[in-house]
Amino acid sequence: MEGTYTVTATDGINTATTTFTDPLGITVSYNATTYTITVEINDMDKGKNYYLKYYSPLGLRATHGPFYMSGTGKWDTTDTLILEPTDRGGKDAWKVELYEETTLKKTVDKIDVLETVWTTDTTYGVAKTSFTQGETVYVKGIGYDPEHGTGVEEGYWYMKFFYGATLMHTSPWIKATSTWDITYSYTLPSDAPTGTWTIKVYCAEHNALHGSTTFTVTTLPTVSITITSNPTGTNFVKVDDATITTPTTFNWVVNSTHTLEALSPVEGATGTQYVWVNWSDGGDQTHIYTVPTSSETVTANYKTQYKVSFNQDGSPLPPAITYSIDGGTSTTSTVPFDIWVDASSSVSYDYESLIYNGTGTRYVLPEVTPTSPQIATSSLTITGTYKTQHYLTVSFPYGTISGEGWYDEGTSTYASLDTGEVVVGGTRYVFVGWSGDATGTNYAQSNPVIMDGPKYVTAIWQVKPPVGLGISGGLANFSLSVEKTGDGSGTITSNDGRINCGLDCSESYRAGTVVVLTATPGAFSEFVGWVVLVVEINQPVVCQCMDQR
Fold this sequence. Notes:
Elements: E1 3-10, E2 15-22, E3 25-31, E4 36-45, E5 50-56, E6 59-67, E7 74-82, E8 90-100, E9 103-113, E10 116-120, E11 130-132, E12 136-142, E13 156-163, E14 166-170, E15 174-175, E16 181-187, E17 195-203, E18 209-218, E19 222-230, E20 233-239, E21 242-246, E22 248-253, E23 257-262, E24 266-267, E25 272-279, E26 286-290, E27 296-313, E28 320-325, E29 331-334, E30 337-342, E31 346-351, E32 354-356, E33 361-369, E34 374-375, E35 380-395, E36 401-402, E37 405-408, E38 412-413, E39 416-417, E40 421-424, E41 427-436, E42 449-450, E43 455-463, E44 471-472, E45 475-481, E46 490-494, E47 500-501, E48 506-510, E49 515-521, E50 543-547
Parallel strand pairs: 11-18, 19-27, 27-35, 35-43, 49-50
Antiparallel strand pairs: 1-2, 3-4, 4-7, 5-6, 5-8, 8-9, 10-12, 12-16, 13-14, 13-15, 13-17, 17-18, 19-22, 20-21, 20-23, 23-26, 24-25, 25-27, 27-30, 28-29, 28-31, 31-34, 32-33, 33-35, 35-37, 36-39, 38-42, 40-41, 41-43, 44-45, 45-48, 46-47, 46-49
């Protein structure tokens, strides 16, 4: 300490007094508002180097100097150390040492660094005094006593945020740490008033003010962002869940976030659609977009697709179609159906050529328009045209027939035999006529058969009997008998009503007579089939047997 000192010594008899002056002086003060420790040094000797060492609770914080002035005599100076949010405060927490060259000359300890507040960045370690609307303000205080107060309020503090005289926000109670620190964060409203704000710190015990600081709020910086699509139009893009017409330009706050959604597929002209491919910023189909610091255009890119419709005409049974795109994997589907293909794709397809209904009718594919393959340059309708054909069945015991086969619906045809008389095993048979769906007695050609459905024709033959064998009018009479077998029930009737078995099971007919027999099963019975027996070789039976289900 500087000043004049008097030292007196005595042995009880003699007294000696000496007066001397130590001119070197040092004064230390701390200002919580400016965050500075200020040191005033007086009466330093010119021509010598002086140094200051600052000590925090963590140890040596900084060394300043040398302080030097040439010449002779004395001189004074002032030095400051600016504290930062990473420093530690407290009662009697700091110390300052003054060195002359390498010799410690003065020490000032037990320096209080109390109730100091900063606004900082997110680390609570770097001072920051300007914030934009919507930004988070981080607050760091040092030198706040963790034992201040008593009871439940001990060591608790809280903060109030003011814009001018208007209270904008009050924090909850904040417990000081054992190192005398407090921290807090507050997110400003997006419409926070701009200008100077003040943070005041209060103790929970008495609600007394214990430090303050200020910061400024500025408007949010904005940039122009254009959202568009390729192609452009309506219903391509949603921005923040609202459909826009592309392109649309927005004036957005830097670092704000927005949801971009590419709608897909998007309907175009008839038979045309657009499918999303990518965003120019690399985002997913729906993604969060963070606004950059400079203007840009963000584009949703689409590819064009055309509808290919597969249809058919003429078949009541849907045909199968096998198709492939650009030579890829083949797929089989049943018409009618639609597919979407990329523009300029090659579509190959193959229609089922024959479709059978299982009852003597089929559907034949004579043409497909347009022919395969096709390049998709617009919507495309492909049609397979079918025609109906019916089968003519000709039944015959003798001779060689012609005319059996498939015929286009509505055409006229006929059945024919190559001969009208044959000898088989010594017995002579003669053709007597056509039955079923054909008429006539000419073996070479029946009367016309109109193919409006499946047709069934039977060639009727009879035995040409030897002379004198029971002939009546040139033809013999023969007995037709029917019999029911099995454990079921039912009736057998003839088309002329003469046979009704159960009651009448046998009648006599002239040779060549066509008799249609019908079997009708009774309740809980089922017709199984016919067994035809010719008892004598010279007694042929000519009949058509049917079942009534």
